[in-house]
Amino acid sequence: MSARLEAEHLYKVFGRRQDKAVERLRAGADREELRSDGTTAAVIDASFTVEPGQIFVVMGLSGSGKSTLLRMLNGLLEPTAGQVRFDGQDLTALSPRDLREVRARKISMVFQHFALFPHRSVVENAAYGLEVQGVPKAERLARATESLELCGLKGWEKSWPDELSGGMQQRVGLARALATDADLLLMDESFSALDPLIRRDMQDQLLQLQTKLKKTIVFITHDLNEAMRLGDRIAVMRDGRIVQTGTAEDILVRPADDYVASFTQDVDRSRVLTASSVMDREVRGDEADCACTTATPDTSFHDLCALSARLSHPVAVLDGKKKLVGVVPRQRLVGFLGDESAEPEPCPAPRDKGGEKVTARA
């Protein structure tokens, strides 16, 4: 399966002598060195791919370059160097007219602030992208109405934006993006302006929609819990660079450096980890027979704890072919909850009755 979106060695530099600044960055210069010369390096050598139907989350603190990176993906900002390919097409090589056509029909954006037109009704706001495309009025209103229903706003079509709560206004923004049937959704801190409870509702809404629509989404956030909840894959940015890319489990269990590890300290691990990330793959011979109560590699940490509490032996983890791929001893679960700064050491694996060590293969 080919990637839907590819970013290759992207740089974005603001200020004087930008090409020279890129050369210096490639040679090992950092942001501070360039800043002293009046040049700002917003994004430095960013590369990643996004597969069709995937939610790819880019997270980092304010000033890390994540929003600048997002705006290069649809051509709102021109990269100083590097390429962006969408379905194999090099967006950085398109003319302004062709790029506007791609943005109008294939890429939609959902902003942090709702950006609704106060003088247009809810359905007219949701239909705006289709209006830009030149879709006839009857068709665009029908498609906008369908999108509003998908987003839980059936019955609010004729209301005005100021009659809606913040969460409902953000749903209109999401419906507007969905109505165009774009292949790619870019979401820039789309839920960060909302109250915590409404924010979680919007996360739920997005995940529910994704099960139906299978959109390709790039989602920007500074909240690691949100990134862990939404992202199929996550890129962590620091000072303009992507310092780690991986699944939520990768970043939580195997942080690339101390900076990434510091982000994970306050994350509720039990909502992220699964059996595959905590199981011991070296299985003792007496444990290989303890498969009466089993889990799968995707079993949640919460469910593992519930299973383990009822057992006097480790939980056996079986793959789709009912093959033993690991076990989860109770002390390993306690280790992941009790010491969140490091992965627990593997349990010892003594010899089995035949004198051989039993090793489960993933």
Care to give the gist of this entry?
The chain is an alpha/beta fold. Among the domains are: 5-106 and 182-267, P-loop containing nucleotide triphosphate hydrolases (Rossmann fold); 274-338, CBS domain Like, CATH 3.90.1280. It contains 15 helices and 13 strands.
Descriptive notes:
Keywords: ATP-binding, CBS domain, Nucleotide-binding, Transport. This is Glycine betaine/L-proline ABC transporter ATP-binding protein. Residues 339-362 are annotated as: Disordered. Residues 5-264 form the ABC transporter domain. With 362 residues, the protein is α/β, with parallel strands linked by helices. Among the domains are: 5-106 and 182-267, P-loop containing nucleotide triphosphate hydrolases (Rossmann fold, 3-Layer(aba) Sandwich), CATH 3.40.50; 274-338, CBS domain Like, CATH 3.90.1280. It is 36% helix and 20% strand. It has 15 helices and 13 strands. It has a 6-stranded mixed beta sheet with strand order 6-7-8-3-9-10, with helices on both faces. Helix 7 (137-150) crosses helix 8 (166-179) and helix 8 (166-179) packs parallel to helix 9. The longest helix is centred in the middle third of the chain and has 18 residues, at 196-213. It is globular, with a radius of gyration of 24 Å. It starts with a strand and ends in a 24-residue tail after the last helix.
